[in-house]
Amino acid sequence: MRLSRCKFEGLQGFEDLDLTDLSDVTAFTGPNGSGKSTILRVLRLAFNILNKNTLCDTLPKHESWDLFTTATLHFNRLDSDPLDHPLGEHLGKLDAFVVEIACTQSQFCIRSISCTDRYIRFDGPQSTISDLQAARSNIVTSEATEQELEKRLVALNQNQQRQQDVQERQRLHSTRENTKANTSALRAELEKRLDIPVEKGTGDTSDTVHLVRDHLDEFLKLLAFPKVAYVDAGRLQVDLIPELISMLLAQKSGRHNDNEKHWTTVRKMNRLLQAEVEVSQGAEQPEMHINGAPYHQASSGTQITLSFFGLTNLSELNSIVLWDEPENGLHPTRRARLLELMFKDGRQFVVATHASEFAPVFAKSGKVFRCTAQYEPTSTVVQLRTEHVADRRDAFLTLDALGVHPARTLFTANVVIWVEGPTELLFYRHWLNPLLEAHQLVEGFHYTFMQYGGALISYLSIADDAHVESTFDLLSMCRHPVILVDSDFREDPGPSPSNALKRGALRLYQEVNGLNVGRPGSAMFDWTSGREVENYLPVNAIWHAIGILWKHFNTYAETLRSEHLSIGQYQSYEADLEAHFVKLGVVDENKSDATKPLAKGRSVWGAGNKVEMMATALTASDLRIDQLQWNCNERLRRVVDFIVSISQR
C-alpha cells in the first residue's frame, strides 16, 4: 500500500499542508526551521493513529507542534479486491481509498473512509479504548458485588430467623437489587457505546446501519495500513545493528531452511558493504565482524549502511519509512548508493534532507518538495510552506539551494566544528574524538569538522555587514556550529578577553551570539587561552616531535635539554623555540647578519612545518590530556559538554 496524498489542517505554522503525488521516495528540502522534520513527525502521528486499528482512542505520544485537527490520507492498494467484510463489500473495488481522521487535544476518531463515489462515515461522539475498558471493568466490579451480596443473603437464610437477621436480609436484598439495576444500566450504556451508527453512501443516496464497535475495528485491521518506521538518527546504529545480529544468529542456528536464509542474507550484506561479514555467538554477547574486525570499529558510513540493511530486513514490507537527514555520516558516493537501494527496496520512503544526493529531482519514482519559512515583522508566528519541485527550473533552484554550486558547500552533520586550518584540525580531532566517543558520539554522524581558513578572519576584519551576513547564511545551513579560533593574544587580555579578539574573530563571536539569541544554545564560539593552538602542547610533546622530524636532534639533545624549554602563553611557540636554540648555541651562521645566528633545524620545527610538527607531537606515547597547557583540558570539555547537550535534545 502506498500513501499518494495527505492533507493536514490545524497544524501550527502551516495554514494547511497538502502534499500530492507522493512517490516511492519523497524528499523534503530546505533550510533549518522550514518544517521538514515537523512534516515527518506529523506523518508519524497519522500512521501511529492508523496502526491502532480502532475507530477512536487516545492520541499516541507526540509533540504539541505536530498535532493536527484533521488529516485526509489517500492510499493506493496493490490488491484491489473487495475486503471480506460488509463494509468492504459496500466500498467495492479498493484500488484507491481515502481516510479522514479528526483529532482533539487528547483523542482521535476515524471520521470516514471513501472510495470513488462510495463512502462510509462515522458521525457522532465515539468512545476511546480506555473508556470502553473502564466501562467493562465497572461491569465486572458490579457483577462481583452482586455475587458477593447473593452469597451473604444465602448465608443469612441458613441462620436462625432473628430479628436483626431479618433486617440485615432486607438491607442486603435492597442493596443487591440496586446493584443489579446498576449493572444493567452499565451494560446498557456499554451496548450503546458499542453500537455505532454508520452512514453508507453511494453518490447522492445514503442510509444508516448499526454495527458493533469490534466489527468496525476488525474492518480497519483488514485495511492493513502501512506500518510506520521512524528512523531516529541518534539511535540508528545502537538499535538496529544488534537486532540484525540477533536475527542472523537465530537463522544460523535454526533448521535447514532458516540456515539457507542466513547465508542468503549474509551474501546480500557482503555485496552491499563490499566486505566479508560474519556473525557469531561470543563468550558474553553476539558478535559481528566485518573483514575480521568488530563492526563497531568500522567507519560510521559502513555502520549506517549496515543499519539501513537491518531496517529494511527487520521491518515489514508494507511500511512507510520516515528518515530525518539520512545523509549524516555518509560519504556522497554512499548517499547515492543508499538512495538507489531505497528505490529498489519496495517500501515507501519519506526523508528530510540537506543533501542533494537524497533529492531525486529527476527520478521518475521520486518526488521533491522545497520547504520555506517566512517571518513576518508584525507577527510572532512563523509561516511554513511547501512547494512542489514541478519542473526542471524548480529542480535546478532546489539543487542550487542544496549547495550544488561551485561557490557553496553544504554541511549536513548535526554539529559542525569549525577550525582554522589543518594544524587545528589535527589537534582538536585528536582530543575531542575520544572524549565524544565516551558518550557514544561518532564523527561524521553526530558531528563533523570543517576548516574555515585563516583568510576568513582577515576577510571579516574588512568585510561590510552584508558580506558578514551572507557568510552566516552559509553557516546557518548546519544546525549547530562550533567555531574555534586562535586568539592571537600577544599579552594577557584582562578580564574581558572577547574584547581583545581581532576584529574578524570578534565579528564571528558577535554573529554566534546573534544565532544564540534566535535559537538559544544552538551555537558555540571559543578561542585559545594562549596565542595559538600550538601553545597548548607540553614540552615533552614538542621534544618528541623535533626528535622524530629532525635527523640531527640526537647530536644536540643533551645540550637542548640542559635547560628547561619554556613556551609562553602569549608568545609564538616558534619564536620561543628559536630563542632556546640560540641561547644554548645550537645555531647556524647567519650570512646576512653575523650578529643574529639562526637556530638549527628551524625548517623542520618552524612555522613552515607546523602541520607535520603537530601531527608528530600528538603521537608522543606519554602525552596526556591533563598535560596540555593553559587550561586547554577545561576548554575541550566545554566543547564536549555543548555537543553532548545537543545530542540529548
UniProtKB/TrEMBL annotation:
Residues 165-179 have a biased composition (Basic and acidic residues). GO terms for molecular function: ATP binding; ATP hydrolysis activity. Residues 159-185 are annotated as: Disordered. Residues 291-354 form the ATPase AAA-type core domain. CDD domains: ABC_ATPase. InterPro entries: ATPase_AAA_core, Bact_Antivir_Def_Nuclease, P-loop_NTPase. SUPFAM superfamilies: P-loop containing nucleoside triphosphate hydrolases. It holds the Pfam family AAA_21. PANTHER family: ATP/GTP PHOSPHATASE, EXCINUCLEASE ATPASE SUBUNIT. This is AAA domain. It comes from Paraburkholderia caribensis MBA4.
